[in-house]
Amino acid sequence: MMPIISLSISHRPSFRASLSRDRRDLSDVLAFVRMGKECLDRTRRRAVIVYENEPLRLRCDPCNSHLEKIHWTKQPPESDERRVKYDSRSDESQDRLVLDADMALEIRRTILSDDGGIYRCKTKREYGEEELGYYNVEVIPLSPNDIEEIQGDDKTPKGEEVIEMKDRTSVEVYTHWSEWGRCNACESQGSRVKLGYCYAIRDLKYYSSGVPCHSILLPDEIKSQIIKKRKNVRVIEDCIVPCDEAYEKARDESWNVHGGEIAQIKGLQGPELIRRVARVGSTTELQCPRVGLGMVATWYNGTRRIDQKEILSTNGKLTESIDGSLVIADVQRLQAGRYECRVDRQTRAVYRLVVIASLAASQEDILKSIVILTGVLAVYFVIFIIMLITRHCTRVMARKKRRR
Prior knowledge:
The protein is of the alpha+beta class. The protein folds into three domains: 1-141, Sandwich (Immunoglobulin-like); 143-242, no CATH class; 256-356, Immunoglobulins (Immunoglobulin-like). Helix content is 22%, strand content 32%. Strands 10, 11, 12, 13, 14 and 15 form a six-stranded mixed beta sheet that branches.
């Protein structure tokens, strides 16, 4: 399970409504009185960014509202507001947009082109609709240059920081942290991830808790200065957890040790085997699809897991990109074979790496072949000439015999 960006927000309910005050239901008025400080002191609005393929959970504080009256709306950029349609498939694991029991909206995998916009949590009152939560969500593509990757939790950025701008103004920034994701192994050393998003506190209307440092709500000049000094953070640390029953069951059903054969036997869609050809000495990249920033991709060579110790021991000849891709530099013939990428106990991609001779070796082989071919042709040519001479001599001798 990847780390989920979970945000909570609600604000002072508005009593501006189309209906008159006299028509308000008495229970609604009493509910407002019972709300107290915990409901009224929430941040009014929140700006959020999330990287593509990452999960996002938007909380909604009911504030004494009836749960059955609560719903979510979404207003895409340059479009009208409409109700969010929640997924409800027979296989719940395939649902992407889910309304949780506490009325939080969960987007299990964000899509760049679909999920950006303004999300509002609302409830129905007798006097009209009341807003309980407001989120300005931006889904952005993953750019490794925007991310600082840290090994171990002891090197994470300190709390708040003041950054001086070129115009001699200052901006206060801080990091909003996600929860830790699930360990990607059990009974042996694995890895887990948490994300930290940079937020800047500026004099922006409505967003008193600040806006993400990568948000379009910040002027480009200010944004570029902040990002140079404080990036978003991806923290990876070692972990060891026991294998519980659910883990073993998931591994048996989803970890396709034989390249998708188990999935196909059970009637599931296994990953397609991809054939990748690389020359000796070249660099090749094996991609792991749909890997979010908060996920940990685990690579296997055959049935052997490629761990971080092995990657670090190669001195850069074997690296894992921030998007989960496995990069093999200076490819050697011994590295040919089957490679498998697994994320959250599921096989995402299976490769068959074929290593062929390098271009220089190929050119040398071609030259050798040319030399050999030239030698063979020369021998055949000499034989041919000898045969011609022999034939000619035979004819000459035959003519002389006839003349005699």
